[in-house]
Amino acid sequence: MAVAEQTLASAPVRRKQASQSYLSLVWWKFRKNRTAVFGGVLLLVLHIAMVGVPEFVSPYLLERTSDYVEAKPQRIRFFDQEGNFHLRPFVYGLEKKIDLAKRTRVYVDDPIRIYPLGFFVAGEPYQLFGLIPLKTHLYGTLSDDPAASVFIMGTDALGRDWFTRILYGGRLSLMIGLIGQLMTIAFGTILGAMSGYYGGWVDQLIQRATELLGAIPDIPLFMALAAAIPSFWSPISVYFMLTLILSFVRWGGLARQVRGLILSLREREYALAAKSAGGSDSRIMFRHLLPGTMSHVIVIATLAIPGMILSETALSWLGLGLRPPLTSWGVLLQDAATVRAIHTTPWELWTVPFILLTILAYNMLGDGLRDALDPYSGR
Amino acid sequence: MSEPLIEIKDLRVEFNVREGIVKAVDGFNLTINRGETVGVIGESGCGKSVTARAILNMVPKPGKVTSGEILYYRRSKENPSDGQSRTTDVLDLTKLDPDGETIRQVRGGEIGMIFQEPMSSLTPVYSVGTLINEAVSLHRLSPVKRVGAQITETIQTHRRVTKAEGRQIAIEMLRKVGIPKPNERVDSYPHQLSGGQRQRVMIAIALSCEPVMLIADEPTTALDVSIEAQILDIMRELQESSDMAILFITHNLGVVANMAHEIVVMYMGKAVERAKVQDLFYQPQHPYTRSLLQSIPKLGQKKSGERLASIAGSVPDPFHLPPGCVFHPRCPAFMPGRCDTITPQWTQVGDDHWASCLLYEEAGK
Questions:
Q1: Do A8 and B181 touch (CB under 8 A)?
Q2: Domains of chain B, with CATH numbers?
Q3: How high is the pLDDT of residue B152?
Q4: Overall fold of domain A165-372
Q5: Which of B195, B228, B254, B361 is deepest in the core (most CB within 10 A)?
Q6: Cβ-based contacts of B115 with chain A (< 8 Å)
């Protein structure tokens, strides 16, 4: 033994592990799953674009209105009417006309006004992350014409760029998914761990509470809770209250799963060993037992985020959740929810593919994680 | 010289289950002196482990200590160098709040414990260093020298060990228990270690807080024989260097003969014989001990065709214990009319040699 130590002292410090770590195994397996990687990348892009820097990605700021009310989307073109190819894409200017037969306002392309498009153009100033003052936008028109516009997904009733609204709406909707799910995890794991670890009346209380919450149908419960939010509250307090409500309703399932896992983990010898080493109950629960449930919790949580986003969307669509002036996907859908809107401004349905894409991406990622986090399983 | 550390007096632990009450420990007495090793042997289910758990006030759920006391002569750990003699106060461990601060200080900090199953006794998500560090940060205090503002006097205070110090202690402990390359192994996770190494780590964790007593609950049962010998050697070495008492629980007579100064034989929750190692192995008095010793296979002494001696019958149903001496249905020296009616008392049968058997009660009278 002494010899071994001497050679060690002279050898350079090697920190390389002899075997692969759990995380490297997980990553290796996750990477092989194309769908999951695709979902993960998609989510990353969506979250960076919407939660992180929507000011940069959108050509306009959320507040910017224009004279183009309920304008149709401007097509991005490479060929003009004469069939000439332009290397730089452009949009035609919009001309407002009144269709007397239909008695509606219509927009037609004005082939005279060509607004070339470019990446990283200067536009309205904003502050990135609320800190860094910037003027650059991801894309925009290069034209000096003050009437120049680029509405790739049309505009709403106030002349706001619909794509910009989708981006900003995504910020709230995606954040509700993330924050709400984090709170659900906090409620679910803490209560589930206590329920499983202590057993007895604590267990009874928590389990009956989850059953009670589960027994009440979702929508009426949401309605009741949402109705309890005072109407004079600022939209942002309403937002946080809504997040709280959503996670409050949803922790039950997670708590039950965590309880089941803790019930089996607490019988392991290491729980006893931790206790015999003088660990307190909370230390044993949260430091020694909960980490063992984490791979499970992460998967459940990932797969539950879409539900969270959809709940927000549904509630806001019903008018119970977020309200304008806040912009979320639910609020946007509410705008598009009338027959008239579908008839006259169908581009407002552009919100739907974004929601679908997000939900699908989360499911792909969640499925991939479920397979990957159990790297010893056969598949 | 021999100063008591733990005194178990008439301990009774009962498990109240649906079928009735199981008396897992039924009037058990034991004194463990400082720096001594006491072995407890007995069949599976005779109450060895429950006794050990009771010392740490960790009797598993339906079980309850119904009577008796476990006195712990607690020396204050602090200020060993200030010249004053250390105070010793007596603590009844069974009366403490099982989740309280005091018992948690005792657990791990003053009485360490290692378990039978090294494979699953380490939390799989933490590296070995983290686990030792955790135990150390819970219990071990390091002295800080501070100069008082008004009087130029060095005051010794204690603070928690920092992470870096904890890591050093962890490496040091791993070296002590004979893990090769402790500098690297400190970052290993339990699944990267073999069973023997894990048990060494368990010992390192238990000893890192410098306990005054170590409870080893069948520490080598799950290991193979060569590793077993190494682990036992390590435990003996560490005991000699640190003056620590060991309560060694096992069903392996060979192991306990190697380790212990004194041995207690348990049967159905009762101590049936207690003696020094030599006496117990060379002059066993209780019929149960004799049968146990006879059931050890001996190399070379066996005639061909002879069967290995075993104790007749089987362990009685814990819900319907036989009256009188609980061993009488299996006892080769059964005395009808006496053994099945009179409960034997604790009798001295030799120099520091006690047994609880009616054979000797008569002789003593």
A1: yes
A2: 4-271 (3.40.50.300)
A3: 41
A4: MetI-like fold (1.10.3720)
A5: B228
A6: 269, 272-273, 276
Q: Give CA–CA dist B288/B269, Å, rounded.
A: 14
3-state secondary structure of A275: helix
For chain A, the average pLDDT equals 81
Q: Which of A273, A373, A281 is nearest to B123 (CA)?
A: A273
Determine the longest span between alpha carbons in chain A, in angstroms.
99
Return the pLDDT at A274.
84
B248 CB burial (10 A radius; 0-12, 13-18, 19+): buried
Mean pLDDT of chain B: 80
What are the start and end residues of each CATH 1.10.3720.10 domain in chain A?
Answer: 165-372
The token duo for B262 is: 């004194």
Which tokens sit at B91?
């603590």
Alpha-carbon distance of A254 to A297, in angstroms, equals: 7
Of B117, B138, B181, the CB nearest to A277: B138
B304 touches B263 (CB < 8 A): no
Higher pLDDT, A206 or A110: A206
| Interatomic CA distance for residues B226 and A211, integer angstroms | 54
**Burial letters for A74-99: b for 16+ Cβ neighbours within 10 Å, e otherwise?**
beebeeeeeeeeeeeebbbbbeeeee
Look at B187 and A15 and tell me if their CB atoms are within 8 Å.
yes
B240 min Cα distance to partner chain A (Å): 20
Mutate which of A276, A280, A281 to test chain B, going by most B C-beta atoms within 10 A?
A276
CA atoms within 13 A on the CB side of A295: 14
Distance, in angstroms, between A365 CA and closest chain B CA?
24
Cis peptide before A325 (omega within 30 of 0): yes
Of all residues in chain A, the one with the smallest CA distance to B135 is A277
What pLDDT, in 10s, does the model give residues B275-330?
A: 888 888 888 888 888 888 888 777 776 566 677 777 777 778 878 888 888 888 88
Contact partners, residue A37, CB within 8 Å, separation at least 6: A30, A31, A368
Q: Are B103 and B96 within 8 A, CB to CB?
A: yes
Helix (H, G, I), strand (E, B) or coil at A222: helix
Secondary structure (3-state) at B13: strand
C-alpha span between B49 and B113 (Å, rounded) = 11
Report yes or no: B247 and B40 within 8 Å, Cβ to Cβ.
yes
pLDDT, tens only, B28-63: 888 888 888 899 988 887 888 888 888 888 888 788
Alpha-carbon span B138 to A278, nearest angstrom: 7
Query: Using an 8 Å Cβ cutoff, are B262 and B276 in contact?
Result: yes
User: Which of B53, B105, B184, B249 best probes binding to A when mutated, by most A CB atoms within 10 angstroms?
Assistant: B184
- CA pair distance A306, B207, nearest whole angstrom: 50
Alpha carbon distance B230, B238 (integer Å): 12
Give A318-349 pLDDT, tens digit per residue.
Answer: 877 777 778 888 888 888 878 877 877 888 88
Q: How many helices (H) and strands (E) does chain B have?
A: 11, 14
Residue B221 class from Cβ within 10 Å (0-12 exposed, 13-18 middle, 19+ buried)? middle
Helix (H) or strand (E) holding A147: none
State how far the Cα of B276 lies from the Cα of B260, in Å rounded to an integer.
8
